[in-house]
Amino acid sequence: MTTSRASADLPELYRAMRRIRMIEEAVAVRYAEQEMRCPVHLSIGQEAVAVGVCAEMRPDDQLVSTHRCHAHYLAKNGDLKAMMAEIYGKAAGCCGGRGGSMHLTDSAAGVLLSLPIVASSIPIAVGAGLAIRQEGRDAVAATFMGDGSIEEGVFHESMNFAALMRLPVLFILENNLYSCYTGLKDRQPQRPLTDLARAYGMPADAADGNDVEAVRKAVQRAITRARAGDGPTLLVFDTYRWREHCGPNYDNDIGYRTEAEFLGWKERCPVEQARRRLVAAGRHDDATEAAMITTIQVEIDEAFAFAKMAPFPSPETARSHVYG
Amino acid sequence: MAEARILTVAEAIREATDIAMEHDPRIFVMGEGVSDPKAIFGTTAGLAERYGAARVMEMPIAENGFTGIAIGAAIMGRRPLIVHQRVDFALLSLEQLFNNAAKTCYVTGGHHTVPLVVRMIVGRGWGQGPAHSQSLEALFAMVPGLKVVMPTTAREAKGQLIAALEDPNPVIMIEHRWVHYATGHVPEGHYTVPLDGPRRVREGGDVTIVATSYMLLEALRAAETLNKAGIGADVIDLAVLRPFEPDLIIESVRRTGRLLFIDTGFRQFGIGAEVVATVVEQAFGSLVRPPVRLGLPEHPTPSSRALLADFYPTALSIIDAAAALTEVEPERIAVPRAALAAELAKLPVDVPHPTFRGPF
Ligand SMILES: Cc1ncc(C[n+]2csc(CCOP(=O)(O)OP(=O)(O)O)c2C)c(N)n1
Ligand SMILES: [Mg+2]
Q1: What are the residue ranges of CATH 3.40.50.920 in chain B?
Q2: In testing the pocket of ligand 1, which one of A42, A46, A67 has its CB within 8 Å of the most ligand atoms?
Q3: What is the pLDDT of residues B287-320, one digit of tens each?
Q4: What pTM did the predictor assign?
Q5: Window A:195-254, CB contacts with B under 8 Å
Q6: According to CATH, what is the number of the domain B5-186?
Q7: Which residues contact A315 (CB under 8 A, 6 or more apart)?
Q8: What angle do CA A114, A232, A151 make, to 5 degrees?
Q9: Which end of chain A, N or C, is more open, meaning fewer C-beta atoms within 10 Å of its C-beta?
């Protein structure tokens, strides 16, 4: 928490996190209108991982995400209007309304795919890394993975192959301690998650997943190795999902975790931590904050208005694009 | 009828599991979410509290692995019940199901059996999209060695699940999420409904309508309207996909001369293809019109409700197909059809009933 830790571009990282927080809170608030008729898995509380990772990525670096993809997509500069239109089921959505909130994609921004089957996206990122290698480029591919996804066989198969081939892949393990309503300790033996990489002779690194600068530093080291042809890295970031697994509400009352645990993590809010650090460094004050919030709010209001007004896709188009 | 007890299909499934577990201490439940607060849409509610974590096992997200683990335990004589929240998640376990669950009895000349039950749920609605709504029963029904059932009424769901848990063979039970809400009379206590083929759910002499799962409910709604226009539909619930026992269907088509099949899954290469082929093989001479199949079109399930307008067969498309098959003049059916259409137009296409509040 020392002021000296505030890096040159912390204001941008902070702004990116605040923007994602505000967008997802707007989704949560407006969800009750029942116009966003698809499941939503919000990342509120986990913004530092998305922003810290994507801050180090170039547009030609590929990102593959999961069911919980809003923050990753936005941090990688995925188009906000196309995301909102997708959630509203509109033709202007990033999948033309075919995918919904769990399939966000934006080729221009390097968001290759988001996939709702747990761990299904991991080998896709390894395949993207393979393609990058075959093309002789110095780009990288990153796969965001929940703590649940490392229980699937395909995670281990993908780690093995990426390590064997020294592919430019970042395995971003975003450990929010839960798979739906089941805690990590009820699903996996206790051990450092970074040890998973040792089985494949792969380097691993870990950092506080609620500290955007710490996340970024760890990613920097891994991405430098990957671009240099020195292979993949497993990065472990502990963080916490504030709201229910799927949907807009809080659910600390239903019995799988405690309000106290949630409050402990809320105390360490990634967005507020960054703001406090900036204020302490004398680089942020109430006036800058207010101006920033206003600008972001305008952007969000526009995106929602766009999504609500946008036309639905016509039913006949449902059968197009089954083949390329 | 004072004792008539009305339960939802979800409640009936929960009760069946409870009764079977009480009866047979070898039965244990495995799955992701089986002991969490949502308890697989309530279908495993209270079981962990009653039988403990050793018999209601919360599983890591490792479908292929834990299916193999269940098969190993089943060969040893234990009786695992696996539950998947979606058919789509069970896809990760196909290797174990198709190669080991389905073949072990055969390969060992009957020395080993695999008394395994796998429940999986077909999602629909609320924009859940292409990878959370697949109805892939045809995939499972293709494999000899598996039994495949699709219960639709609460009484049958309970009796079929208890029968499955007492069966020495692997049984795949495919439940439609919207069928979970259907209510019906469910007897108390232990009983079984044999896994032995289709049942007639409505008598009629003009057209044979065969359907599975949620499409049976649509077919029954259609049959009521058809009846108002003087068309008698003989409605058959396929119920048991494998072993495939077509006799009841053949007997019905011999009387009606007309067959309409409604698939819950894809029309092409769907269950209807097998039903129609069998009817053509065995009752060709009785058919007065070519059989008709309804089912899902040739594309994945889109998320947007706007794209779903023509995706699922409905009571109306069933009525239209049946009217064409029976060659009734459109005017005869127009009034009751319009009344039903007006009623259905009030309901959103992406939720099972008006009181539903998303998400899934
Ligand atoms: C193969 C598969 N099994 C089960 C599910 C249902 N499911 C959706 S999200 C989820 C939990 C995933 O947990 P984690 O990987 O930690 O991600 P988080 O939701 O915490 O972001 C589960 C079990 C699924 N989508 N795919
Ligand atoms: Mg998690």
Answers
A1: 199-345
A2: A67
A3: 999 999 999 999 999 999 999 999 999 999 999 9
A4: 0.97
A5: 246-247, 254
A6: 3.40.50.970
A7: B306, B307, B308, B309, B310
A8: 55
A9: C
